[in-house]
Amino acid sequence: MARTLATDATYSKATVYHLTLFFLQFAECVMKPEQIASIAHLARLSISETEVPVYAESLSSILSMVGDLERAQTQDVAPMAHPLPGLTQRLRADEVTETDQHERYQANAPETAASLYLVPKVIE
Amino acid sequence: MSIHTKTLPQLAAGLRAREFSAVELARHFLDRIAAHGPALNALVSVTADTALEQAAAADRTLAAGLGGPLTGIPLVHKDIFCTQGVRTTCGSRMLDNFVAPYDATVVAKLKGAGMVMLGKANMDEFAMGSSNETSFYGPVKNPWNPGLVPGGSSGGSAAVVAARLAPVATATDTGGSIRQPAALCGLTGLKPTYGRVSRYGMIAFASSLDQGGMMTASAEDAALVLQGMAGFDPRDSTSVERPVPDYAAALGQPLKGLTIGLLKEFFDKGLDPDMERSVREALAVYQQLGATLKEVSLPSIGLSVPAYYVVAPAECSSNLARFDGVRFGYRCKDPRDLMDLYKRSRGEGFGAEVKRRIMTGTYVLSAGYYDAYYLKAQQVRRLIANDFERAFGEVDVIMGPTTPTPAFGLGDKTSDPVTMYLNDIYTIGANLAGLPALSIPCGPVRQLPAGLQIIGRHFDEERLLNVAHVYQRETDWHTKVPAAYE
Amino acid sequence: MSNETWETVIGLEIHAQLATKSKIFSASATQYGAPPNAQASLVDLGYPGVLPVLNQAAVGMAVKFGLAINAQVTPRSVFARKNYFYPDLPKGYQISQYELPIVARGHLDIVLDDGSVKRVGITRAHLEEDAGKSMHEGLGAHSGIDLNRAGTPLIEIVSEPDLRSAKEAVAYLKKIHTLVRYLEICDGNMQEGSFRCDANVSVRRRGEVKFGTRAEIKNVNSFRFVEKAINHEVARQIDLIESGGKVVQETRLYDPNKDETRSMRSKEEANDYRYFPDPDLLPVEVTPEFIAGVRATLPELPDEKAARFVSQFGLSAYDAGVLTASRELGAYYETVVKDFPSDPKLAANWVNGELAAALNRDNLDITQSRIGAGPLVGLLKRIADGTISGKIAKEVFEAMWDSGASADAVIEEKGLKQISDPAAIEKAIDEVMAKSPGQLADYRSGKDKLFGYFVGQVMKATGGKANPAQLNELLKKKLAG
Q1: What is the domain extent for residue B158?
Q2: C313 and C288 in one domain?
Q3: pLDDT tens-digit map of C348-357
Q4: What are the DSSP calls for C397-420, one per residue?
Q5: Are residues C359 and C399 in the same domain?
Q6: C 26-55 residues with CB below 8 A of A?
């Protein structure tokens, strides 16, 4: 079915919209609680036990919606990382113009000592 | 006419003619902010003292016969723009105590042009939201009806201008965050071409999509503000080295010969029939003005929401990794160890929607999923951009509704994120393709503002603004102010 | 450490800090040793809203390296984000290059102990930003973060797994070290961390085609440690396999105090870097004109210079190799030869011999030598014109080293001038012969070995200054009667 739809270049926004709603209704919870826990860990986010199923459900529906991408025919299509075509990186002259402003910058820091940013001891 | 319903040129003329001083103007708007701001919850910070200082400086400039069209004009910045010495929260608990040590380029440029900052506008947390309900500082209310949302993420900016608490507010647009709230609040909102306005100092949500712009009452005002904001910035590698045209000078060109593309996919079943009627009425005005309508199709545009909800969360998951409780921002109490510091600072500092997007982005970039999600989305992004390019081979601008419906009720769409995301169904395409787009008020839908969206070619802001301006000369929707704020 | 059963396979990842004035994406200074966070700008700190802009000099230096190793320079390379959380990584991601590095597929030749040449493949060299530093001492229950180093430009040079012993790895590492200093793209200071090395080490049974599971050894930041750490790791892996265990792919830290590697499980967990193209940076275009501009600045490379020394000066490959190990040493030698063109071989012997020993003894490099190229030429000339013997020359050299005086001044002051007057030498011989009638009789009765005794006695009598060749000739004649 995905293949048929993908070749149909004229399927409309409405189709997607309604398909999305359709899928949402019946979407399985594709994200399992243990996946949520591992993603939250990778992203360094504390998530309470009670929040896990909530995120599992919402990520599942987002991923179902996003799953529509599968339908697109993207063979030989170059991925687009930037919205403007053909631009290349501008290079800066190798000059030092910054000065020592650590006191000002550290005014926002939760904890510092001896001009260092402090964190709980890191064990390597 | 009251002072707060004047256009920018009228205000500039008033200042020059000494009908009022910049200080008086600032005071007038500060008084309005004091009177109406709290009820609307439109501002996170009010900077009265600096505003009066800047206004006094503007008066001196004007007295010396100097200054430009923006000198002495008050504005509110979306709280996503860093403002030196002023708290910059991005609508998040994470940055509740963050005082930026520098000015964003946009802030510096508008300051340099003589504008007077009155305060910082509330917004969805880290610009993630379409209703301004994700802000740590609470939801913003729509000045047209306090039970409704103003749209988002630039909901505070929209409420400020709609209630005429300032004539101008800056805003940012990653997937519709300028145009959607402008539409829902009856304003002119412009998202320039990606790279036209510097992103330096604009706290990043999704770097390849974010673009700064503004909300004003009219296209004429927007042209003047864009003039002050736009331009190359050596501190932003994605800023484009290209001269800034005289936007105001381009206004008033006749529309005869203009070909308007009607995006077939935008007039679909999901579109509120009253909204469609309003948009079609606006299109009829354009026909009367000499423009030709032509239906165009963007076959891949239907995938813009899915593509966006891969690309934007992916970039945001990385962009927001810097908020770790070490150098700035929120830090949890008594961290047990480094892992605890990270997890709780971020877990407590970010709200639910931000965490949801960070997790979505983390997931789509993670090993084994990158190709299926991220790479695929970037390919679809190319297809969408190609669609637009093809369409712009046939038409000069593309028009359609900005949103599927007018403003919805507070709390109506907070339970399901995807329902909320679909609010941006018509606006996301321009972000993916980097195109300039604006929303202008067209005829009301059930007594609520509705937005006509106009999308242009890359760097074709002159034409967009002119097309909007000519319509606004013929109609008066853009002059409507909610009764409570007249 | 390889033996008949096991073969060692090594690949090196070398991080060289580029010798730019400012950082790779910000205009902060890169100088070593500044007070904590004095060189950490908003960009280096990863402040909200700030953006990176690429340093042209960093690109130029990476390209220069690429040209020097005969690599391909990628016309459009791409910066990517490597995402992980660590306190010394302010943005929560490192800007690096992943799929499209600026330099790809080069090689470098190293000379092995047996004199043969081995070509080592270099997979890639990519640009990236360095991280900051964590301090763990003296802050109680805390670690302190200094972000001065954050954003310093690096090239990471990744070799193919072509190296087969710790010795080869060291030879390769030294060659890269020489090269980056020749190119003046890195100061090579290993103590300050400007030049760092991680080693990927695995073992396999000889004849096996598949590589074994590798361990990455971090923190091998001196030539000596590289060798020790690899040898230790190879022994560990062989022991492990031979006792029925399996090598696991992991990161291990070398501890030079204990001479062992240990697992860094803390860094291993959740090693999902989620690389994706950095949307804040555009593709880096390196045009043919840019490459030509860089090529024009390329110095003569070590291998080219060594080959020239062999052909131009008739040196051995070994001597030429030693003399070109650093650009400064090569320059010193060429200055000497320019003013002393008659015997480049003698000059090489002295530079690689006495001079190298003295520098080594006093822990100096060639630019700090107590005897400059000019004074050394002064000494060599006196050897060549017979004023002093080679043996006396060593004494003169030591005196020059200590006092800073010229060779002539030392010779004059110490009266070390060689005696080449036949009459004076004959007189000394006659005296020795007169004092040693017994030895003379023995010699004449066939004890040829006593010739050395007479040489020694005459040298002693002349304070070692008798011209050795003349002494030889005259002594033979006199002893024969």
Answers
A1: 3-254
A2: no
A3: 999 999 999 9
A4: HHHHHHH---HHHHHHHHT---B-
A5: yes
A6: 26-29, 34-42, 45, 47, 53-55
Average confidence (pLDDT) over B151-176: 98
Question: Is residue C359 situated within a structural domain?
Answer: yes
CA distance C379 to chain B (A): 58
Among B358, B378, B398, residue at a domain's last position? B378
- Told to judge if B78 belongs to the known catalytic residues of this protein, a careful annotator would answer yes
Residues C234 and C312 placed together within one structural domain of the fold:
no
Domain with C91 in it: 6-294
| Contact A23/B at CB under 8 A | no
CB B457 within 8 A of CB B115: no
- Does residue B264 have an active-site annotation? no
What is the per-residue pLDDT for C413? Answer: 86
Amino acid letter, B486? E
Is C1 within a domain?
no
> What pLDDT shows up at residue B1?
67
Q: Spot the catalytic one: B21, B154, B177, B278.
A: B177
> β-strands B116-121, B74-78: how paired?
parallel
Q: Is the pLDDT of residue C269 over 80?
A: no
Query: Cα(B95)–Cα(B81) distance, rounded to whole angstroms?
Result: 12
Domain boundary among C294, C327, C345: C294
Inter-helix orientation angle B105-112/B219-229, to 10°: 110
Q: Which of A17, A44, A66 sits opposite B422 (nearest CB)?
A: A17
Does residue B87 sit in the same domain as residue B222?
yes
The residue among C294, C321, C353 that closes a domain is: C294
Q: Which stretches in chain A have pLDDT values below 70?
A: 1-29, 124
Report pLDDT digits (tens) over B405-431: 999 999 999 888 888 888 899 999 999
Please give the Cα distance from C388 to C411 (Å, whole number). 8
Confidence of residue C387 (pLDDT cuts 50, 70, 90): confident
Choose the mutation target among B86, B207, B318, B345 for the interface with C, i.e. most C CBs under 10 Å. B318
Please give the tally of structural domains in chain B: 2
Q: What is the pLDDT of residue C220?
A: 84
Does B353 map to a domain?
yes
Q: Is B300 a catalytic residue?
A: no
Residue B7 is assigned to a structural domain of this protein: yes
Instruction: Tell me whether residue C246 is in a domain.
Output: yes
User: In this structure, which amino acid lies at residue B41?
Assistant: N
User: Per the CB < 8 Å rule, is C285 touching A88?
Assistant: yes
Averaged pLDDT, B99-121:
98
Q: Is C85 on the interface with A (CB under 8 A)?
A: yes
ipTM for the complex shown: 0.97
Instruction: From chain C, pick out residues whose CB is under 8 angstroms from the CB of A120.
Output: 141-143
Of C272, A51, A112, A67, residue with least CA distance to B306? A67
Reported as a single tens digit per residue, the pLDDT across B264-296 is 999 988 899 999 999 999 999 999 999 999 999
Span B298-309, average pLDDT: 96
| Residue owning tokens 């005897």 | C371
Is residue B297 situated within a structural domain? no
- In a 13 Å sphere around the CA of B192, the CA atoms on its Cβ side amount to 29
Count chain A–chain B contacts defined by CB atoms under 8 A.
214
Q: What is the CATH number of the domain that holds C468?
A: 1.10.10.410
Of all residues in chain B, the one with the smallest CA distance to A105 is B101
**Cβ atoms of residues B256 and B441 within 8 Å:** no
Asked if B153 contacts B128 with a C-beta cutoff of 8 angstroms, the reply is: yes
For residues B200 and B115, membership in a common domain is answered with yes
Task: Using the 3D structure, point to which of B329, B349, B378 is the last residue of a domain.
Answer: B378
What total of structural domains would you count in chain C?
3
Does the structure show a pLDDT above 50 at C324?
yes
Co-location of C37 and C146 in the same domain: yes
Mean pLDDT of B182-188: 98
> pLDDT digits over C400-436, tens only?
999 999 999 998 888 778 888 888 888 889 899 889 8
Helix%, strand%, coil% for chain B, nearest 5: 45, 15, 40
Residue B460 lies in a domain: no
Amino acid at C238: I
